[in-house]
Design brief:
CATH superfamily of the largest domain: Response regulator
CATH architecture of the largest domain: 3-Layer(aba) Sandwich
CATH class of the largest domain: Alpha Beta
Strand content: 15-25%
Oligomer: single chain
Largest sheet: 5 strands, parallel
Number of domains: 2
Number of helices: 8
Number of strands: 13
Distance between the termini: 19 Å
Radius of gyration: 18 Å
Order of helices and strands: EHEHEEEHEHEHEEEEHHHEE
Helix content: 25-40%
Shape: globular
């Protein structure tokens, strides 16, 4: 998953970024609302939003996103633990609310639970014909057999699977796989990854929508 981490505390931000990357996520860490506003149209799978930021309130930014029709899942991270604060955070458009200090493992569990709820699943497994994708274990199976994927192949597969039924442009797929800090992929590189996924998992798994991008049929 590509995660936007909006946190101004340098120690906490670095720790969360490194932990989430160790779990296989692509993490873009920003320190203020100015940076967040500059990337609002970037594709993300999850927003982790601190309440108090140097140039404003994260909850206000999130409420504005929701008012503009952006539905990217979001978790508020804050030291505010009053009931009124929790209600305000959730009413601003957050899908979950986590009070600092917290263990990174709890955040990871909440991310998994949020993904399950949003995908309408009892578990973090997606099935497309004979292909089964385990988002927790980062595993893919074809006809019941475990298939070995490279880290980049997995990232491409996960990005498309989480958007099953929707066309993902090559530009958005590149951003989801690499984030700001990664080395951008060329169109040819993405085509190679998609070709390998088709060969390893199923020729019909990923559709090429000419001139638009790729799609896993829902």
């Amino acid at each position: 998953m590509r995660v936007l981490l909006l946190e101004d505390d340098a120690i906490l931000g670095e720790a969360l970024r490194d932990f989430l990357r160790s779990e296989g996520h692509v993490v873009d860490w920003l320190h203020n609302l100015a940076g967040a506003r500059a990337v609002e149209r970037e594709p993300f799978d999850l927003l982790l939003v601190d309440w108090n930021l140097p140039d404003g309130l994260g909850v206000s930014w999130l409420a504005a996103l929701r008012a503009n029709g952006r539905s990217t899942p979001a978790i508020i991270l804050t030291a505010r633990d009053r009931l009124a604060d929790r209600i305000e955070g959730l009413d601003s458009g957050a899908d979950d609310y986590l009070v600092k200090p917290f263990a990174p493992e709890e955040l990871s569990a909440r991310i998994r639970a949020l993904t399950r709820r949003l995908n309408g699943e009892a578990s973090r497994q997606l099935c497309f014909g004979d292909v089964r994708i385990d988002l927790t274990r980062h595993e893919a199976h074809s006809a019941g057999a475990l298939v070995t994927l490279t880290a980049r192949e997995w990232a491409v597969l996960e990005a498309l699977a989480l958007r099953a039924g929707r066309i993902v442009s090559k530009a958005d797929l590149d951003a989801l796989v690499n984030g700001f800090d990664g080395e951008s992929s060329s169109n040819n590189t993405l085509e190679v990854h998609v070709s390998r996924l088709r060969r390893k998992l199923s020729p019909a798994l990923i559709e090429t929508v000419r001139g638009l991008g790729y799609r896993i049929p829902a």
